[in-house]
Structure formats: structure tokens, C-alpha cells
Amino acid sequence: MRHLLKTKIGRLRILAILEGISLLTLVFIAVPMKYWLGNPALVKMMGPIHGTLFLLFLFNTLSVGVEQQWKFKETTWKVILACFIPFGTFYIDNKILSKL
Questions:
Q1: CA 57 to CA 52: how far, in whole Å?
Q2: What is the pTM of this model?
Q3: Which helix (H) or strand (E) holds 40?
Q4: Nearest-CA neighbor of 54 among 14, 93, 83?
């Protein structure tokens, strides 16, 4: 895991995983707790965390894409699109980011 912190692509991969985990937590734990148990506390906590990770992933994708001179039509748009598709960050990490 330490080797990922040394490069911008590695840090982008970490953000992808964290964003995906935050969405999993929000969808499968926090939202059911809110509606089935009447306890919205976890949604109030995880919502802003997920939103922040989402934006960080988006901005870092653009930053890394410019720095690495990714062709927008080949790589950048796919990585950006992944954060709009539920759990797409896991897929994009496996198919694109891990190979860079």
C-alpha cells in the first residue's frame, strides 16, 4: 500500500477505492439504518464524506489526466464516467488504473 502513496496515479487509485467503499457503506448500511431503524445518523455522517471523496476523485482524475497527458477520448473520460456509475471506481481501478 505504501508504494501507492508515492505516485499521483497510486493516490488516485486509493481515492477510487475509498470512494467505492464510502458508497457501499452509504447504500448498504447507512440508508437501511435510516429507513428501517429510523436512525439517520450514519447517513448524515457518510453523506458528506462520500461527497467529498467523490469530488476529490473527480478533480484528481482531471489533474492526473493533464499531468500524464492522457488522451481524453481514450482514458480520462472513462475514469471520470466511473465515478458516476455506482461502484464503477472498483472496475476502473482494476481495468485501467492498475495497469498505468
A1: 9
A2: 0.87
A3: none
A4: 83
The Cα 20–Cα 88 span in angstroms is 8
Asked whether 67 and 8 are in contact (CB, 8 A), the reply is: yes
For the purposes of burial, counting CB atoms within 10 Å of the CB of 14, is it exposed (0-12), middle (13-18) or buried (19 or more)? middle
Who contacts 54 (Cβ-Cβ below 8 Å, separation ≥6)? 19, 83
Residue 83's nearest CA partner among 91, 94, 75, 72 is 91
Q: What is the pLDDT of residues 30-76, one digit of tens each?
A: 999 999 999 999 999 999 999 999 999 999 999 999 998 988 888 88
